[in-house]
Amino acid sequence: MTEARVARRAFVGLGSNLGDPRRQVERAFDELAALASTHLVARSPSYRSAPWGVTEQPAFVNAVAELDTYLPPRELLQALLAIERRYGRVRDGTRWGPRTLDLDLLACGDLRIDEPGLVLPHPQIARRAFVLVPLAQVAPDFVVAGAGRVRDLLAAVDASEVVRLD
């Protein structure tokens, strides 16, 4: 007997700081909306934020997408990586560097997963204002498994360098 697929609420962080970052983030929302077995529920506004980790690079444009998806987390992650590759993203092991498009699977319902290549919720979600600010726009009351409610997590970080773009 095959296991029935269950729809889950998932959140994806979008970021870009190479090429035309605002356009790439906008186009990535369209790509997410077109994913099989997935519905784009909400999209945050875009924000400009300072680079995190490696600071000697251009500012980022960040946003968050809220999805309902029947894809299992690993399949959803593979779909996100495929979108990144279409935008010229090369994952060569360099962390926190400049990128044409970054799609991070932030959370998938209340799942907690710690496997090679897939950790949910995202291990840095509670520390990153550039994720929490747009996430709070679409789901302020979402409870990040093991971390807390988004609005409370946001209140605990310095979000002064995350600026909404018109």
Key structural traits:
166 residues, alpha+beta, Alpha-Beta Plaits, six-stranded antiparallel beta sheet, 10 strands, kinase activity, EC 2.7.6.3, kinase, folate biosynthesis, transferase
Written account of the structure:
With 166 residues, this protein is an alpha+beta fold. It has one domain (8-164): 7,8-Dihydro-6-hydroxymethylpterin-pyrophosphokinase HPPK (Alpha-Beta Plaits), CATH 3.30.70.560. The protein is 26% helix and 29% strand. It has four helices and ten strands. It has helices at 21-33, 73-86, 129-138, 150-155, and strands at 8-16, 38-43, 47-49, 60-69, 102-108, 113-115, 118-120, 143-144, 148-149, 162-164. Strands 1, 2, 3, 4, 5 and 10 form a six-stranded antiparallel beta sheet that branches. Strand 6 (113-115) and strand 7 form a beta hairpin. The chain is globular and about 40 Å long. The model has no long low-confidence stretch (mean pLDDT 92).
